[in-house]
């Protein structure tokens, strides 16, 4: 985000209520260490996601939080290392490639509800989803490794460029 | 939380130790001493100095010998980490991985199998900021090996100071090397840092260099009080 020239603030997910919402154009929910899955028992911390129209990109644990916030579920499905990801849609502004190699580091995969479109998958699990009505995305892989285009395109698509 | 740091003696594992100490307790360093100088996983030049560095830092060290055969050395790493859990009660591992998916994946898998936390405080760090910070904060980082063009013999044993970083920035732009040497272009050794209680003094060394490949081998070094010369 810094490299793309965006201003940002890093906050813990439990601090959402204390943030000045009118200064936020988008939210990126980052992942957690492999052993830290406490967030999945704290669904109340993510109820703001379906209640607002703010663009959200959930990464790994962040994607799991997004799916849980909309009433979906997560299931044990660990993956560590590089894997092949295939795109299933052709109309998305962020996911334009047919396939890519991605870095995985997760203990759980997601079972999204019907309000989500599955955008990409690997042999193991769903790798990217988009909400059908709201600008809300989730990716299971870690885009910071070799796929920074995910974050860059999310920002250029949903956030006006201010430095 | 009690943590063990995978320690090679180079700048990344030393800085990762420093970062981990800011928030948690570093109970031990874990050094894999590879008998193979071409190890895939482990930094090798001057690895025998890690015990002196540990003494200078005032942190216990667990040294484990590995033959350095690809993949077999991962079993050795798992055994070394298991020993650290038994001897020091560590609950997590810290690494100095910056960009290496190869290292990170394998260490994450070992930690997962042993139910340990895995922290990589330098993961995808801004390389320019990191190198400048090492200099500004007083880390004494010496080049202990060069393995790519355009590094000539004068780099062996050279301290990474502002002038060296200026050249590295030029080399990064012109030759595509990584500023941190993450691609294996160069390796480093730290002899002093702000959190060291003592420092390493190199008394005898030898440089061997040919065709953009060289090693600065330290044959004799001592741990001394910081005020001594």
From TrEMBL, chain A:
Domain Glutamine amidotransferase: 5-153
Gene3D superfamilies referenced in this protein's UniProt entry, alphabetically: 3.40.50.880
UniProt key word Nuclease: no
Keywords (A to Z) from UniProt: ATP-binding, GMP biosynthesis, Hydrolase, Ligase, Nucleotide-binding, Purine biosynthesis
Tree of life domain: Archaea
Extent of the signal sequence: none
GO cellular component: cytosol
GO molecular function: ATP binding; GMP synthase activity; hydrolase activity
Function: Catalyzes the synthesis of GMP from XMP.
This protein's name: Gamma-glutamyl-gamma-aminobutyrate hydrolase family protein
Source organism (scientific name): Methanogenium marinum
UniProtKB/TrEMBL annotation, chain B:
Organism, as annotated: Methanogenium marinum
EC class of the enzyme, as a word: ligase
GO molecular function, one term: diphthine-ammonia ligase activity
InterPro entries xrefs: Diphthami_syn_dom, DPH6/MJ0570, MJ0570_ATP-bd, Rossmann-like_a/b/a_fold
Domain annotation Diphthamide synthase: ranges: 1-221
Descriptive protein name: Diphthine--ammonia ligase
Coiled coil stretches, renumbered: none
UniProt keyword list: Ligase
């Amino acid at each position: 985000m810094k490299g793309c020239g965006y201003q940002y603030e890093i906050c813990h997910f439990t601090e959402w209520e204390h943030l000045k919402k009118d200064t936020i154009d988008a939210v990126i929910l980052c992942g957690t260490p492999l052993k830290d899955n406490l967030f999945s028992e704290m669904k109340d911390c993510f109820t703001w996601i379906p209640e607002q129209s703010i663009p959200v990109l959930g990464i790994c644990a962040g994607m799991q939080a997004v799916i849980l916030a909309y009433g979906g579920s997560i299931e044990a499905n660990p993956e560590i290392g590089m894997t092949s990801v295939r795109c299933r849609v052709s109309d998305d502004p962020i996911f334009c490639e047919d396939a890519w190699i991605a870095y995985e580091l997760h203990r759980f995969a997601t079972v999204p509800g019907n309000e989500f479109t599955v955008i990409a998958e690997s042999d193991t699990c769903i790798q990217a989803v988009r909400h059908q009505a709201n600008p809300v995305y989730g990716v299971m892989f870690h885009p910071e490794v070799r796929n920074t285009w995910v974050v860059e395109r999310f920002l250029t698509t949903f956030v006006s460029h201010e430095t | 939380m009690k943590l063990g740091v995978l320690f090679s003696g180079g700048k990344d594992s030393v800085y990762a130790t420093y970062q981990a100490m800011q928030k948690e307790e570093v109970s031990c360093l874990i050094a894999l001493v590879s008998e193979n100088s071409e190890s895939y996983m482990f930094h090798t030049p001057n690895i025998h100095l890690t015990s002196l560095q540990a003494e200078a830092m005032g942190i216990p060290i667990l040294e484990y010998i590995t033959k350095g055969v690809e993949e077999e050395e991962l079993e050795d790493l798992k055994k070394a980490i298991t020993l650290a859990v038994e001897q020091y009660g560590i609950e997590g591992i810290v690494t100095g991985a910056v960009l290496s998916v190869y290292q990170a994946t394998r260490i994450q898998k070992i930690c997962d199998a042993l139910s340990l936390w895995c922290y990589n405080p330098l993961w995808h760090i801004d390389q320019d900021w990191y190198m400048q910070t090492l200099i500004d904060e007083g880390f004494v980082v010496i080049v202990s090996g060069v393995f790519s063009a355009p590094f000539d013999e004068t780099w062996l044993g050279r301290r990474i100071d502002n002038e060296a970083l200026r050249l590295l920035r030029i080399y990064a732009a012109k030759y595509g090397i990584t500023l941190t040497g993450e691609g294996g272009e160069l390796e480093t050794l730290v002899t002093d840092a702000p959190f060291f209680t003592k420092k390493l003094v190199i008394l005898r060394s030898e440089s061997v260099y040919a065709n953009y490949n060289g090693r600065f081998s330290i044959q004799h070094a001592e741990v001394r009080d910081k005020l001594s010369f």
